[in-house]
Write a structure and sequence with these properties.
Layout lengths: L2 H5 L3 H4 L22 H30 L4 H15 L3 H19 L4 H29 L7 H5 L4 H5 L2 H17 L1 H6 L5 H12 L4
Length: 208
Amino acid sequence: MSSADILKLAPEILKQIPAASPPPGIVSNLNDPYDKGNVLVIVSTIFLAIGLTAYIIRLFAKVFLLKKFFWDDVTLTLGVYNYLATAFLTITLLFLKISVLLMYYQIFWPMRWLRIEVYLGGTIACIFYGTLTIYQLVVQTPRNGVTWPEWEFGPEQPKVQHVSLPTGVFGVIMDVFLLVLPIPAVLKLQMPTKKKVGVLCVFATGLM
C-alpha cells in the first residue's frame, strides 16, 4: 500500500494499522494495547521540573547574587530554550555539553592540560552534533511537491531512525568524559582531602 493510499483511509481504519511489524515472538494487540504513555508523561514531567528548578536557581544566583553571567550560562540558557521551544534534540545536547565544558574551563583555566581537553571535547561535540543536525534537516524536510503526511509515510522517514544508535552511544561517551574530566583537576587542588571529596560529590551529581 502506497503512502497516497494510506492517506485516503479513514481515521478509524488507521487506528487498526500497526506502525511497524512486531518483534519476533510478540503478537500485536490493537484492541486492548498495553500503554505506557501515562508513565512516560509522569516521569518526564518530574525530571523536567527538577531540571527547570535547578536552572532557575542557578540563573537567580548568577544574575542577582553574583551579578556575573558567563558564556556557560549563555549556552545553558540556549539549551533550555531550544529544548522547550524547538524539536532539535541534537542542538539541545550540544548546548548543554558545551555549557559544562565552559564551566570546567572557567573553574580550572590555569591547568593547561584541562584547557586542551575542553577544546578537544568541544570541537568533537560541535562536529558530531552539527553534522547530525544538518543530516536531520536534509532528511526530514519534504521535497518540492511532497506534503508532510506523505513524507511521514514515505521511504525517507526510516532514515531518521538510523542516527538514533550513534547519537545514544556518542552521548554516553561524552557524558562519561564530562564526569571524569574534573576528577584529576580536583585531586591536584591544594585543599584537605575532606573538601576534595565534597567537591567531587558535587560534580558527581551529574550522574543524575
